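As a warm-up, study this chain.
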Amino acid sequence: MAETIGACRDAGFPVYVLGEGSNVIVSDEGFRGLILRFSGERIAIDGDQVEVETGATLQSLVIATIEAGLAGLHTLERIPGLVGGAVYGNAGAYGRQIDEIHVETRYFDGVEFQTRTDCEFDYRESVFKRHKDWIILSTRLHMERADANGLRAEAKRIREIRDEKFPPTMRCAGSIFKNFFLNDLPENAAGLIPKAAVRGGKVASAYFLERVGAKGMREGGIEIASYHANLIYNAGCGTAAELRKLILELKRRVREEFGFEVEEEVQYVGEFND
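Now compare it with the structure written out below.
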């Protein structure tokens, strides 16, 4: 791996590290370079310590920790993707996220192998998003003991909710836009939000998208769900260009109506002609 990346770098050949691609929008033109994916998927549990290679699916890790009676990942039930992507984007759901249980992560920075405890996590952010050429190899987590039956029941409840919102057959990348912390919003926008719309100090981006008419919008084969303004899916033969055009239109509408930007949670790969 190190030799391959070094050779590509010396030749000026682009390299992109990809997991399962569940939170990625790839250009219709593809990517003119080398796509790498780390395939190690070992999961080792020792007491309250979990060591996992980042090629493992997040769901397999969720199941393994539930069965071991460890709390902290059970609310991430049914979130698609690999563990590497979960660390990369500080994945979370229902009040929990990766940084709360993270101990350290091992990665390759293109020159040498490194281990760091501080991954500069933030809401759906990490240092790895600013260094897309780094390859996350493994991560170690510290989790709390809990009743496995209780964790299993909670995961089942979350799975039912998620499957209703995001049917497994739906072709989508999950939520397109990040949510907001109420304190980070401009005063004029924050003042418009009812208390019922604030959960854990956050406001769903769907709140603003709905108010600019997002629900049911369509661009070619790309549609926005009639029941959720932040759920954009491929209804047929939609293209990445159509999806990008719809995203930019939503950003424009929110900016003009409320005076701030909604920011994508999804990542782009390849070139887009806006």
